[in-house]
Recover the amino acids of this structure.
């Protein structure tokens, strides 16, 4: 079973220079591949694949343009993988699975340096450090998080909000199959409570806590400062490429706050999933939500975005696969909220403001989310995600 471990690293000054140089070259090559194919299309020429572009870049382009020799100063593995990533983006576009590939900007910080394992000594892991190709041994911040002497297939190095991370793909044992399993569980996710389970477990909305609200208030204040600084910079005739040190420092503050909020929310998702899996259910049923359609509501879009419903489903899917639990996904229009969990009657008109479900046939009164979770646990029409 392949498993990914991502942890923060503490490189020295020379390793930081190499990381930033590699990331910059990977971003340039990715954008160059897109722009080169756009030019070929406008000239009526055929599409150049990633392998052909790599050969042309090394044999023709750099040889005829010595000013671009700095492309070869970094790892050739990382550069080639960046080209193949751009080629895969075009393939998805041709298959109509995604939009046209976009150029990567420096401020987006979404470019990663990929290092495959070609030799046995390329990737090695010890308790307090990890060996990365072209970088050497780098100290990790969390000792023992990556299993020592793990069989690493490949890895990436990334930089985000002033921190450096390494992500390794490890070949581990087979999934854990639980033998003693209890009854199935239905999970209803929402905004008032993040998740309500049919067995009575209720997980509150972390975005309503004082800690998150304090950080969001601080983020709003720092974003306002950044907006003022950039506005004054533009009034003086400056461009984004000529940002001063104070503006870059303010950008770093905003990035760190965004990253901290993201880490807190993801940590809460992991804790919720662990609590659900600890009950050892035979199956877990959740609803197939139309998050894209829900985001069109301008009054609730921001609150829905903070809940990360899609990420919760992906993490739950992986955890169920690891523990041998069947994950069921009820149809999108399954009436889990409008159906009575006792008599099975359906309530046609149910407003979003009605937090207590009152059955018109049997007179049952139950919490709206709890009623939906019980109906999801009893659902007979579903798709098996894993």
């Amino acid at each position: 079973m392949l498993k990914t471990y991502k942890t923060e690293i503490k490189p020295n000054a020379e390793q930081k220079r190499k990381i930033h140089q590699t990331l910059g070259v990977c971003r340039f090559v990715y954008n160059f591949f897109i722009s080169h194919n756009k030019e070929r299309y406008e000239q009526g020429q055929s599409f150049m694949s990633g392998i052909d572009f790599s050969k042309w870049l090394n044999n023709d382009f750099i040889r005829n343009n010595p000013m671009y020799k700095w492309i070869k100063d970094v790892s050739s593995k990382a550069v080639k993988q960046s080209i193949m990533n751009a080629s895969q983006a075009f393939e998805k576009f041709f298959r109509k699975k995604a939009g046209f590939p976009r150029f990567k900007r420096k401020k987006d910080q979404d470019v990663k340096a990929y290092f495959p394992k070609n030799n046995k000594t390329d990737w090695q892991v010890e308790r307090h450090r990890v060996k990365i190709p072209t970088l050497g041994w780098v100290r990790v911040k969390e000792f023992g998080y990556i299993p020592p002497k793990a069989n690493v297939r490949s890895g990436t190095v990334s930089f985000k909000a002033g921190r450096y991370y390494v992500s390794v793909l490890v070949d581990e044992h087979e999934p854990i199959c639980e033998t003693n399993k209890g009854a199935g569980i239905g999970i209803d996710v929402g905004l008032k409570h993040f998740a309500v389970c049919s067995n009575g477990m209720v997980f509150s909305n972390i975005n309503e806590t004082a800690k998150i609200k304090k950080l969001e208030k601080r983020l709003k204040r720092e974003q306002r400062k950044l907006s003022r600084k950039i506005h004054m910079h533009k009034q003086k005739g400056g461009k984004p490429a000529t940002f001063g040190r104070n503006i870059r420092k303010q950008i770093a503050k905003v990035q760190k706050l965004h990253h901290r909020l993201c880490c807190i929310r993801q940590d809460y998702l992991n804790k919720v999933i662990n609590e659900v899996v600890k009950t050892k259910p035979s199956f877990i049923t959740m609803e197939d939500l139309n998050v894209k359609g829900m985001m069109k509501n301008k009054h609730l879009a921001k609150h829905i975005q903070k809940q990360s419903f899609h990420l919760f489903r992906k993490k739950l899917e992986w955890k169920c696969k690891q523990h041998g639990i069947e994950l069921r996904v009820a149809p999108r229009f399954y009436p889990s909220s409008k159906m009575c969990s006792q008599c099975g009657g359906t309530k046609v008109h149910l407003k979003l403001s009605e937090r207590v479900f009152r059955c018109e046939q049997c007179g049952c009164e139950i919490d709206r989310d709890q009623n939906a979770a019980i109906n999801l646990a009893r659902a007979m029409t579903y798709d098996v995600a894993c």
About this structure: The first helix runs from residue 13 to 42.
